[in-house]
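TODO from last week: model DeoR faimly transcriptional regulator.
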Amino acid sequence: MSQTFRHPEILEIARRDGRVTVEGLACHFGVTLQTIRRDLSELAEAGRLERVHGGAVLPSGTTNIGYEERRGLNADGKGAIARACAAAIPESCSVFLDIGTSTEAVATALLGHRNLLVVTNNMNVANILAGNADCEVIVTGGTLRRSDGGLIGDITTAAIRQFKVDIGVIGCSAIDGDGDILDFDVQEVGVRQAILARSRRRFLVADHTKFKRTAPARIASLADVDTFFTDAALPPGLVAACRDWGTAVDVARGA
């Protein structure tokens, strides 16, 4: 069976089951694992699926994919982005790190930094940076979202407003073609807007898969951040827009 015929059936299985696995599809079609990986990569490039560890899921415009799935999505790219972002964060400064797998990767990349004050609404970030004895960690408080260790809600937003940090680092769920930064959770959007408002410099960390997704709630625009760290070239229209807005774009490459 050619890929032309496999692709529609792969999408149908993904719609029916919520996700597909490389091994399951290889068994179903009687082809090699490499063949299925190639099929999934092509469907992902076309924006029809999102690659996750061991398989793929349907892209969603109304609900986010699961936290563990997000962790496995483009881990190498997120690592490169995190290292580039950490390199732009000097020692002896204050930083806000918000919810998300990309900001958690930044926390890991900051383990060697000295004399940092990190404020976070991400329990995973706090646990990571507990391993850096030269980093003071302040956790905002708020309503715990067990699915990803995030703290959200009015208490969180009020706590953030008590600070003015040197650098705020946020992630997002999607980036629209006009440069709007998007998310799924309205409470999380409010928290991120508060972070941007209380940071002297504003960094966005988001890998290239965010350009293939959509989400319903607007956080801000790329015009509102100082530096955008990503792992692939932006669409030409956004390159020109970022230049006009004065938003620096740092395209990180994997090791």
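Done. The radius of gyration is 19 Å.
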